[in-house]
Amino acid sequence: MPKGVTRRRPRTRAALLRAALETFAEHGFHAATIEQVCERAGYTRGAYYSNFASKEELFLALFDEHSERTVSRLAASIDALTAEEYTLTRLAELAAAIEPDERDWYLVTTEFTLHAIRDPQAAWVLARHDERLRAEIARGLTLVLRRAGRELTVDADRFARLLIALREGGLAQSYVEPEALPPGDLERQFLPALLEASTRPASRPQSKRSGSDAVI
């Protein structure tokens, strides 16, 4: 492959992903066409198919990109805390932060989840991506709680499922009634109590930075 094509490929892929998110959010995952994504991105169908084999593959690439970006943002916020700020309330506040562009992603992922519920193959694939995200959340949560002098008394993967359910369920209500329930309010109100009830003082408290203790 020519070097110029190699250098352009990441830019092409990034542009297609941005265009796909906007197109899926505007028209819906099923109604949106590959032609609409290509037109918005300014690329041909050939460029699309050199990066993605299907709309499902495109969505899953968006899923992984969104997961990585969300986890990275949270990790950066947590790493910026001082030792005194490592409280369950402060950690819950950071976890409750909702980016302004989250609504578009919520629209897209909710529709694809409904599709996966109806399609066993799509459900299996989506579950594998969900599993990787939960593993990152569970690992990061375990390390962050250790810095705060706490440890989980429940299975970390199951607690990660609860965190995701709280976030997604809260956002569903917030986007329907944004004035009655601003995004992130349920996490800010109830997550500290959930963390308190599901953790205990760690047997060996850990300092904020110990060895390779990176959150993510």
From TrEMBL:
Region annotation Disordered: where it falls in the sequence: 197-216
DNA-binding region in chain numbering: 33-52
Entry-linked InterPro entries: BetI_C (IPR039538), Homeodomain-like_sf (IPR009057), HTH-type_TetR-like_transc_reg (IPR050109), HTH_TetR (IPR001647), Tet_transcr_reg_TetR-rel_C_sf (IPR036271)
Molecular function in Gene Ontology: DNA-binding transcription factor activity; transcription cis-regulatory region binding
Composition bias, Polar residues: 200-209
Positions of the HTH tetR-type domain: 10-70
Record keywords: DNA-binding, Repressor, Transcription, Transcription regulation
Pfam families registered for this protein in UniProt: TetR_C_6 (PF13977), TetR_N (PF00440)
Protein name listed in UniProt: TetR family transcriptional regulator
